[in-house]
Amino acid sequence: MLKKRENEPAYALLNDVSCQTLNRYGHPIETVQVDDVRRDQSLNINGDTGIGENPNRYKQHGFYFNADNCIACHACEAACSEKNDNPAHISFRSVGFVEGGTYPAYQRINISMACNHCDDPVCLKGCPTRAYTKFAEYGAVLQDPDICFGCGYCTWVCPYNAPQLDPVKGQVSKCNMCVDRLEVGLKPACVSACLGNALDFGVIENIPENRTQAKTEIPGFPRTDITHPNIRFQQTRTPQRDMYRVDQNPVKYHREENSESYKPVADVKQGIKREWNWASLLGSHENAHIAFTLSAQTVMAAFLILLSGYWFEPVTSFQSSHAMLPGLLLMFVLISFGLFKLNMHLGKPQRFYRGFYNLRHSPVSREIAGVSAFYTGLLGYIFFALFDNSYTQVLQLLCAGVGALGAGFGGYFMYKLYRIEARPFWNHWYTAASFCATGLVLGSLLLTIIALVFSSMTVAFGEALLSMISIGLVLELTGLFAHARSLQSSSSEGAASLYLQTTRYGNAYWLRNGLLVLALLLTIYMLFSSNHTALAYSVLTVIALVSHILGRALFYVVVIPTTMPGAFFWKNQGFVEHAREVGLADMPQIGVAYERHHAFDIGELLETIKTTTMKQKFAQLRSIFTG
Alpha-carbon distance 166 to 501, whole Å? Predict the structure, then answer.
C-alpha cells in the first residue's frame, strides 16, 4: 500500500468527523450495513492484503468543487496524470470553462471535473465486458482496462466524459478515486495539489470548512437525474444569463428569469450558412457502425420477409425459385462484412467474446447475443437448404425460428442501446423509426435486385416489396419531421445537434431529405403504373441506398453528448481534428494522438521472429495476440 509521509500537510488528510445518513437523492450514504460480510475486505492494492483504517471506509465519498476559487492552473490535471502515469492525450481530470458577458462585466467559470462515482453509474450497466465495479469501499466506481475490449460504449452513456478511450491502446481507463491514498487517510492527488483550495474531498454531503454551499449543479454541468453523481459545488457569484462554451460544440447555457437552473440550448455562433463537409461526414470514427447497422438491418429484414413466404403467397414464389439460395448466400456475406467491420472497430478485436459478459444489464451484450443468434440461424438455414429431405426441412425450420427470434431480439436492443440520456439527439423514437425504415427499404430492395438478377421477379412479389418500401420511406420521413420538431423546442444538446445538421452539414442533410422524397415518389409511381423494369428498380436502389448512407452518417456525426465543456485546445474535438489534419498530433505535448490501436502489429511480429529464442517467441507472440 501507499506509504504515508510523516509530515503530510493538513489539507491532504481526510478529516470527516460526522456524517449524514442520506444523501441529496435520498440514498443511504452507508454503502453496506455494519454486519455485512463485505466489510473488512482488502482492496488488494498492488497485491497488498492490508485493510485501511479509515473509519468512514464504507461510506459514499465524493468531490467538492468551489468554482469561486478555481484559477484554471491545471495543477489537479498534472497531479492526476503524474500519479496514474497517463500519456499526454489521456487525462482523468480535466479543466474546462464557460464564459459570459462583455467587458467590463465579463465573467468566466472554470470547472474541474473527473469521475463522479455516481450512485447509479450508467457506465457500469452499459459496459458489455463487466469491466466496471462499484465498490462498497468509499463508493468508488473502478474500471479494469485489462478486461475492456475498447468498444467505447461507456464513453457514450457517461454524461460527464469520465471514461477515457485511449486511441493508441484501444482501451478505456478512468479516475479511480485514488483509493490507495484513501486507504491511508489521504485525499486524492488532484485535491492535494489544488493551489486555490477549489477542490476538496470527503464523505458526500459533508460541506468542507469555510464553505457555504453544496449545490448539485452549476452552469455547464450536465443534468444530475441520469446518474445521481457524487459531486457538490459552490458558486456564490451570480453568473450571466447566458454562459457560452469555448470549445467547438455550439452549446450555451441559458437561465430563465427567476430561476437558478441553466439549461443547454443551441448557440448559433457558427452562423447559419449551409455547408457540405464531406470529409468529416464520411470520414467519421463511427464508419464501422454505419456499415454494421445498415447491413444488419437490411439482412435481418430481408430474412424475415423471406420467412413470410411460408404463409404469404407473393413471397412463396421467390422462396421456391432458384434465386433463393444465392440470395441467402449474399445476405450471409453482407452481414458477415458488417460484423467484421464492427469487430475490427474494437480496440482489442481479438477479445470480441467478452461482449457476452453483461447480458444482465448491458444493451450492447444483448444486441451482440441477438445478432449472433440471427447469424447462427441464418447460417443453419442456408446449410440445411442444401439438402432436400424431411429431416433437414424440420431442422431448417428450427434455424428459421432461431434466426427470426435473433433478428427481433438483436434488432430491438440495437435500437435500445442508442436511447441514451446523455445523447439527446439519439434519445427519440425517431431512432426506432429510422432503423425499421432502413430494414423495410433496403431489405426489400435487396430482394428485388436478387429476383431481377435471377429472373425470379413476379408482379405480385414486386408489388409486395414496393408496398413495404413505400411504408418504410413514409416512416422515415414522418420520423424525421417529428424529430426536428421535437429538437427545435427542446432545451438540450439535441437542439445544438439539429443546428449542426442544418448548417455545417446542411447541404448533405437536405440532399438526403430530397432523395427520400424522390424515392417515395418513384416507388408510388412504380407501384401504381406497374413499371417494374430493371432500370426503375436500379434507380430506386441507388437513390435509397445513398439517402440511407447519408442519413446514418449524419446520425453519428452530429450527435453532441452532455459532456463537460472543454477549453480552446484541451478537450475540444474541433482542435483534435485540426491537430490530426495538420500534423500537430505528432507532438506529444499537444495532448492529441492518432488512432493507432490494433489487435497486433505485423512489424512487431516479424521482429519477434527474427530476434528471440524459441521459448521467448512463444511468450512474446502470446502477449501480442492477447493484447
Answer: 28
